[in-house]
Amino acid sequence: MTAPVRLPATMQVLERGWLSSNNILFRGRGPSALVDSGYSAHAAQTLALVQSALQGRPLQRLINTHLHSDHCGGNAVLQQAYRCRTTIPASEAQKVGSWEEDALSFKATGQQCPRFSFDDTIAAGDTLTLGDMAWQVLGAPGHDPHSLILFCPDERILISADALWQNGFGVVFPELEGESGFAEVRATLELIATLDARLVIPGHGAPFSGVRQALDVAFSRLDYLCADPLRNAQNAVKVLLKFLLLERQRIALAELPQLLGQMRIVIEANRRFLQQPLPLLTQWAVAQLVKAGAAEVDGAHLRNRG
């Protein structure tokens, strides 16, 4: 039986879904802080949720676990509203400082992220005080080479971003471009296994306490992907198409090949693993989403479901 989720009084999880990452809000004697800010299409909703939770108090700090668009897309609107001190992974500082769109992940995945600035950085080995609690900053490469996770030993709570979900982990993007990713995912999962966390707050989905079970699922999933890297490429194409649907809700079928063809990640995954003409790859991805109940064909359009 799953143990009940118990959060400290100074900590609140704003569970968002799959287009926007979860947001974790901290209050207490120290500065208020938010970990991750969701996707740009939900920026107004993110701001409203934060304003409601803070009840008129200011947001003083914003921290990103990594810079995928669904985790930092609300940065700009929060900075505008609060002038909050913004902290990003140190290894991404140069790209953000000069806003290198080709080096950041947004353009490669066909996603949006308004330009934002940062005030300081964090890296593995640092310690943060959030909600009157000490949090260890740990490196969590795999899904993203620059990703960080946060662990509070006193409360045994892990903010895992996309390194560990209840039923897996995020797409292993480095492998799609010929870089190492599977080994890093394994090392990150092994690190998490040493933490004795009682509660995990994932980047997507509800907080959960069955950590050992989630790790078993994740290791099994990793073994499945490692056995045939084609599976990771197929999953990536489906996930990126689903993300488009989550954002737009309805897309003309005739427009889909062009949209997928604008994503460097899809082009690289197709070149290295899938090796399909783009129209056929698009038809396959549509069929997979429809089969899974995640989309439906509505005349000349693909419509989001679920």
Task: Characterise the protein shown here.
The protein is of the alpha/beta class and 306 residues long. It contains 12 helices and 14 strands. The protein folds into 2 domains: 11-227, Ribonuclease Z/Hydroxyacylglutathione hydrolase-like (Metallo-beta-lactamase, Chain A); 230-304, Arc Repressor Mutant, subunit A (Orthogonal Bundle). Helix content is 38%, strand content 19%. The strands form 3 sheets. A 6-stranded mixed beta sheet has the order 1-2-3-4-5-6, covered by helices on one side. It has a 5-stranded mixed beta sheet with strand order 7-8-9-10-11, with no helix packed on it. It has a 3-stranded antiparallel beta sheet with strand order 12-14-13. β2 (23-26) and β3 form a beta hairpin. α1 (43-54) crosses α3 (75-82) and α9 (230-248) crosses α12 (278-291). It is globular, with a radius of gyration of 19 Å. The model has no long low-confidence stretch (mean pLDDT 97).
Q: Which features characterize this protein?
A:
306 residues, alpha/beta, Metallo-beta-lactamase, Chain A, 2 domains, 12 helices, 14 strands, 38% helix, globular
